[in-house]
Each structure stands twice: as structure tokens, then as C-alpha cells.
From TrEMBL:
Domain annotation Beta-lactamase-related: ranges: 100-436
Domain of life: Bacteria
Keywords (A to Z) from UniProt: Hydrolase, Membrane, Signal, Transmembrane, Transmembrane helix
Name of the protein this chain belongs to: Serine hydrolase
Keyword Lyase among record annotations: no
Length: 709
């Protein structure tokens, strides 16, 4: 939503009035206020990892040059909403546009991005608002920053936190109150053996939930969308740790907070967010509704006027861009259901920079504004953490930003505001290959105009002794912990930490390597090419976990039993042994085929195991071969390939246990002339032991549960 590259939910609902410019039947119960002139708001964003962003590393050839159409909206003068920040030189509009044009157009060509939109604001003025490329291949509809709606994914969460903080300010909810106090009984968090989950824990992603996504976070078929309360009740995640201990980004937790606010106010979430934020802020083209047919048990759908201006989502293929079916996220609207334009997000970021006030209207209090800018949770000293639901974002030059990033299957977005510069940047793209662009634009703008990098970066090479402290394999906490999705999480949420010959830290995550330099703070490393940091916790001379920027998850050191290297070797050897077992049927001479009845049964059993293991390996290979299509993974979960592989492994594991028990009898054999040779007995025993190790590993990795998809 990062991320991965993060829940299947449909929101409780009723109707929210949408936009003053596009009032439809869905909003008959609301009268939108008069619309102020369009303004843009500051937004800067850095896209975070989404769960399972790539099950296979995608190798993309450099594309041919593509002609991109840019749609520019000339900002109209508006009354300043915030006084200029003292000592800060305002951005030169012409230079900014030239710089951003080069940055975005180059990325669109190199990363095959069909369309992008950006808004930059400073001191209450729109400095840049622009669209690039296409929003739809039908008629080559260009991206219009004033009209084209992009999915903003997890940026939606910041709206939810504003509504929650308003209820806290009104005294109807407490930040340190258990969330169960504000939820209807069917949605209350279970687990009497653990401490209560507080609203504070939901805002800092420390509730202790596992993170599940496959098969339910996005919906392609609108008939499968469920009301929010149904989703939260049916997709309840496990509580895998005590609350307040470690960060694990949770879409479910934010949706739960949205349901709590809706329950306390007695209003559907869509209506509440429209009345409290969207309408008062003059955001005429922002909505938390999906474009789908009407259904009585769901909130009203998106108005036809807005639906006509949505950007399509694109997937890049060898044959070019392919428009994808719209992602339905209304079932989990508080966590990721919003769509908006660059112009509306400009106003939203002006609201954030204006400390809750825009056009003379107060949307939230100065006290809430302070909470959004004050650290509420840091997983470790010097680590970047969470403010009141907003990410604390390190930026070049020592500046700090607040905001949020977002990711769906096809859309990536980033929003960052920098109060010390009076600056905000919002960026969004509509293509699955475009995750990097929104994450780098805000930092690139600040580095270009306010914080040029040093001519010679300082480095602090690690010694061989220090290297041993940090090197190892780590597993992220943002994953499912059980079932087949738990197996996928163990494959994808891994990090390998190594030290390069010149003393830098190399971290391999999601198929991409990054380099980090040690700082003067113990256990703290800074990225070579950005202001991001890694912070390690060290115990007894050995790093036990580390945290990235922002703190989406902790990465915990894992032992040899959970290492990918061990699994790879055992799978390879087992595959070779299985092939050898089957080949042996055809190449043994007559003397080697003599056997006792027990040995015959053991031979049949091991041959069956070999067949099952090979079928399982082939099915997993087929699944991985198709996993580059992330929509196929999400919408088709659990895949028939993976379920078949798991079932074969389960049966083969049971047969392996039986075979291992039979080994002593196999070795006794019968008369010398009617028994296997010693070499064949050794091969049988070695294969049985090898399959036993494989079965144990697969059980630990949660792969022997075909019914748990």
C-alpha cells in the first residue's frame, strides 16, 4: 500500500455526499458547501514497501523512447494560507518545473510509467501542478491534474487519523483507551492472554497483529466486496505479540480505527470523512467510494461524473501497457479507499501545513496539529517512527517531513509536507513498474533546492570484527504467521545483511541491494543515496533486529533452520534424490531388484514420495513463474498450483515418516540372496533422512497446510 510493497473488507456504509461539482444520488443526505476556487496543497511522499511486492525479482529491459503527453494546469493566484517561513527562499517556479520535468520524464521512459501527476505547494501557494502521460489508452486521454483521479491508497489513512483525533479532542474517545470500548461486540479485538489494544497502538502500527493481504486486500469483482464490519469480523488477523512492542504496518488496524470512529459518531465512515474533511476543505474531486454498481448493503458508489475521470491502472508487459480492471478497496476504505486529484491533494496539504485551518475553516485543532508533528512512537533510539498516524520522514539536509505513502497493485503515491520549509509535495503514478518515482521526488526537490549533498561523502568503514555483529539473515514482522500465506511471507519478507570489502553494509531486500555507511551513533547506518537510516539493536555483541525508514516493520535475526540457504540446498538435494529414485526403477540390474516383501513395500512408498515431491516442486515452480503478475497472485489466492504442491508435500511427508520407521526392518532384510545390497540400503536410508529434513523444514515454514489458503 510500500512495499512488497501491508485485508479484505467492505465498509459499513450509507451515503457520503461527494463533490460540490459532482453531486449525485449517493449524496442526497448531504448538501455540499459552496466550492472555493481550486488551490493546491503541499504534499511530499515516499512510497513504502507493499507486502509481496515481488515474489520474483522483475528484470525489466530498458524501454524504447516513449512520447509522453504532459498536461499543465497553470496555478491561479490564491490568498496565502500560511505566512512565508523566515529565512527560507521560496522555490523558483520555472526552475522547479524544469527540474521536475526532467526527473519525471526520464523515470517514465526508464520504468515504463504510463501516467503521473504532481503538485508542489509552498507558503500557501501552488508552485507546480502538472500531469504527465495518459490516464487511459482509450482515446489517449491525458492526465489532467485538476480532473484525473488517482488511487492514493494508504494516504487515505491520514484522513482516518484526523477524524479519530477530532473525536479524541471532543472527549468522546481517549488516545490511551482500549479500542474495544469503541467497537460493537462482533468487532472487538480478542485475546484475553494479551494486554488490551489501545487507540495509540493502532495509530503507531504496534497493535501486535500479523499482516495478511492475499486474496482479500483488493477485490476485482464488485460482487465480492463486503461491508466494513463484515470484513473486519471475517478477516480478523492473529495477535502474534503484545501491543506496543514492535511495529508491523497494519491495514486491518487502521480499518478497525475507522470502524471505531464510525461507531462512536453513528455515521458511516464515508459520510463522516466527507462532512469533517472533504467538503470543508473544498476538495471537490476526492472520494472514498468505489466505481461499481449500486448494492443495498454497501455505501453508495462513486458518482458517474467522477468515475469518468478516473485514471486506469496499467501493467507493463513485453507488448506494452495493458489497462487493468479497477481495484476495489471500498471494503477497507479507512485504510486505503480514497481517490483524488493533484489539485485536491494540494488543498489537503495546505490544510496540513496550515495546522488544521484552510480558507478560514478549522478542520482540526492546533493541539491535533502538534500531535501530527510530534513523535508518538520510535522503535529504537535514533530510529524513524510514527507521529499520530503520520510517518516521520528523514529528508536531505537534516529536514524532517511528515506524510504518508501509498501503494495498490497499479498505483503508487507519496505525500510529504515539510513545515520548516513551508513545503508540500504530492506525487502519484498509475503503473505497476512506477514504485520508485514517488519515493524519490520529494527528497530530490529538497536536495536540489535546499540541501545539496557534500562533494565528498564521509564514510566510516566497518572492521571485520564489527561486520560479524551485523551480518546475517533477517525476517520481517510484516507478514502472515500461519498457513500458505505465512509460507509466502517467509519467502518474501527476508533481508540479507552483509559487509562489502570496503566496509559498507549491503542489505538485500525484495531482490534489490542497497549500501549503507556507519555513522557516529552505534548501530545506526545512513543510506549512500538518501537520508534514510537503518538502526540495529545489539545484544551480547550480536545484532538481533533492525528497523528501516519509516518503521513499517522490524527485521528480526533468524537462525540456520529458517535460512533460505538451507531450504535451497535441501530442496535441491531432495529433487536430485527424487529423480534418482525414479531413474533407478529403469536402470537397476536384476540382482539389485531382489527384495523382501517389506523392502518391496518400502520401495513402492519411496517411489511414491519421489513422485509427489517432484510434482510439488513443479507446481511451486509454476506458481513462481506466474507470480510476476501480482494481480494473479492477489485475486487468484490461494493458487491451485500452490494448494496442489502443499497437498503433495503433506502426503509425501506422512509417507516419509512411515518409511523412516520401516528403515530398521529394511536393513534386516531376509536371506542374503533375497535382500537389497548394502549400497541400496544406504541410498534408501539417506533418501528417507533427506525427505525427513525437508518435511520438517516445510512444516516450520507452514507449507504443509493446503487447507489454510
Amino acid at each position: 500500500m510500500t512495499s512488497r510493497f501491508s485485508s479484505r473488507a467492505a465498509l459499513v456504509a450509507v451515503m457520503i455526499g461527494f463533490l460540490a461539482s459532482a453531486v449525485s444520488a449517493e449524496a442526497q443526505d448531504l448538501a455540499p458547501p459552496p466550492q472555493p476556487p481550486p488551490v493546491a496543497a503541499p504534499v511530499v511522499a515516499a512510497v513504502g514497501p507493499r507486502p509481496y511486492a515481488s515474489l520474483n525479482r522483475r528484470v525489466r529491459p530498458r524501454p524504447p523512447a516513449v512520447r509522453q503527453v504532459a498536461k499543465v494546469a497553470t496555478p491561479a493566484p490564491v490568498a496565502s494560507l500560511a505566512p512565508p517561513v523566515a529565512g527560507v527562499t521560496p522555490l523558483p517556479a520555472a526552475e522547479l518545473e524544469a527540474f521536475v520535468d526532467g526527473l519525471i520524464r526520464r523515470s517514465m521512459v526508464e520504468d515504463h510509467i504510463a501516467g503521473a501527476t504532481i503538485a508542489v505547494v509552498q507558503n500557501g501557494q501552488v508552485v507546480l501542478k502538472k500531469g504527465y502521460g495518459v490516464a487511459s489508452l482509450k482515446g489517449r486521454r491525458a492526465v489532467d491534474p485538476d480532473k484525473t483521479l488517482f488511487r492514493i491508497a494508504s494516504i487515505s489513512k491520514t484522513f482516518t487519523w484526523i477524524t479519530l483525533m477530532n473525536e479524541i479532542e471532543a472527549g468522546r474517545m481517549r488516545l490511551d483507551g482500549p479500542v474495544n470500548l469503541y467497537l460493537p461486540e462482533p468487532l472487538q479485538v480478542r485475546g484475553k492472554d494479551k494486554a488490551p489494544v489501545l487507540l495509540r497502538h493502532l495509530m503507531t502500527h504496534t497493535a501486535g497483529f500479523e499482516d495478511r493481504a492475499l486474496g482479500q486486500l483488493f477485490e476485482q469483482d464488485w460482487t465480492r466486496v463486503r461491508p466494513l464490519n463484515d470484513y473486519l469480523r471475517q478477516e480478523r488477523p492473529r495477535r502474534v505479540r503484545e501491543p506496543g512492542v514492535l511495529p508491523t504496518y497494519s491495514n486491518y488496524g487502521v480499518a478497525l480505527a475507522g470502524a471505531a470512529v464510525a461507531n462512536v459518531t453513528g455515521k458511516p465512515f464515508e459520510q463522516l470523512v466527507a462532512e469533517e474533511i472533504i467538503f470543508p476543505a473544498g476538495m471537490t474531486r476526492t472520494t472514498f467510494r468505489d466505481a461499481r454498481p449500486w448494492r443495498d448493503d454497501l455505501p453508495a458508489p462513486m458518482s458517474p461524473e467522477l468515475a469518468a475521470d478516473r485514471s486506469a491502472g496499467f501493467r507493463w508487459t513485453e507488448l506494452g501497457w495493458r489497462e487493468q480492471a479497477p481495484e476495489m478497496t471500498g471494503h477497507i476504505a479507512p485504510a486505503g479507499g480514497a481517490s483524488s486529484t493533484a489539485a485536491d491533494m494540494s488543498r489537503y496539504m495546505m490544510l496540513l501545513l496550515g495546522r488544521g485551518t484552510i480558507d478560514g475553516k478549522t478542520i482540526y485543532s492546533p493541539r491535533t496539529a502538534d500531535a501530527f508533528r510530534t513523535s508518538m512512537y520510535r522503535p529504537a533510539p535514533y530510529a524513524s517512527g510514527w507521529n499520530a498516524g503520520f510517518q516521520d520522514i528523514p529528508l536531505p539536509g537534516g529536514y524532517r517531513g511528515l506524510g504518508h505513502n501509498g501503494a495498490t497493485l497499479w498505483f503508487f503515491s507519496n505525500l510529504v509536507v515539510v513545515p520548516d520549509l513551508g513545503l508540500g509535495v504530492f506525487v502519484a503514478v498509475n503503473t505497476d513498474t512506477g514504485a520508485e518515482l514517488p519515493s524519490v521526488v520529494p527528497s530530490a526537490i529538497i536536495e536540489r533546492f535546499y540541501a545539496p549533498p557534500p562533494a565528498i561523502p564521509t564514510t566510516r568503514p566497518l572492521s571485520a570484527e564489527a561486520a560479524r555483529i551485523y551480518e546475517g539473515d533477517y525476517l520481517g514482522t510484516r507478514r502472515a504467521y500461519r498457513g500458505l500465506e505465512g509460507f509466502i511471507g517467509r519467502m518474501t519478507q527476508r533481508a540479507e545483511v552483509r559487509v562489502t570489502p570496503d566496509g559498507q553494509l549491503a542489505v538485500l531486500r525484495d531482490g534489490q541491494s542497497s549500501l549503507w555507511n556507519a555513522t557516529d551513533k552505534p548501530g545506526v547506518f545512513k543510506a549512500n543515496d538518501s537520508a534514510q537510516t537503518l538502526v540495529f539493536e545489539v545484544s551480547d555483541g550480536r545484532a538481533t533486529r533492525f528497523f528501516g525508514t519509516p518503521a513499517f516493520a522490524a527485521y528480526e535475526r533468524i537462525g540456520f533452520l529458517m535460512s533460505s540457504g538451507l531450504m535451497t540446498w535441501i530442496l535441491t538435494l531432495s529433487g536430485i534424490a527424487a529423480v534418482a529414485t525414479l531413474v533407478g526403477i529403469f536402470v537397476r540390474d536384476r540382482r539389485e531388484t531382489r527384495q523382501t516383501p517389506t523392502q518391496a513395500r518400502a520401495n513402492l512408498m519411496q517411489t511414491t514420495q519421489a513422485t509427489l515431491w517432484l510434482i510439488a516442486l513443479s507446481c511451486v515452480g509454476a506458481f513462481l513463474g506466474k507470480s510476476n503478475d501480482i494481480a494473479w497472485v492477489f485475486y487468484g489466492w490461494p493458487s491451485g498450483w500452490l494448494v496442489t504442491a502443499s497437498a503433495c508435500c503433506l502426503v509425501a511427508s506422512v509417507l516419509t515418516a512411515i518409511t523412516l520407521v520401516m528403515s530398521p526392518v529394511v536393513w534386516r532384510g531376509g536371506r542374503r540372496v533375497d535382500s537389497w545390497t548394502t549400497l541400496r540400503k544406504l541410498a534408501f536410508t539417506f533418501t528417507a533422512l533427506l525427505y525427513t529434513v525437508l518435511a520438517i523444514l516445510l512444516a516450520v515454514w507452514n507449507f504443509l497446510l493446503p487447507w489454510s489458503g
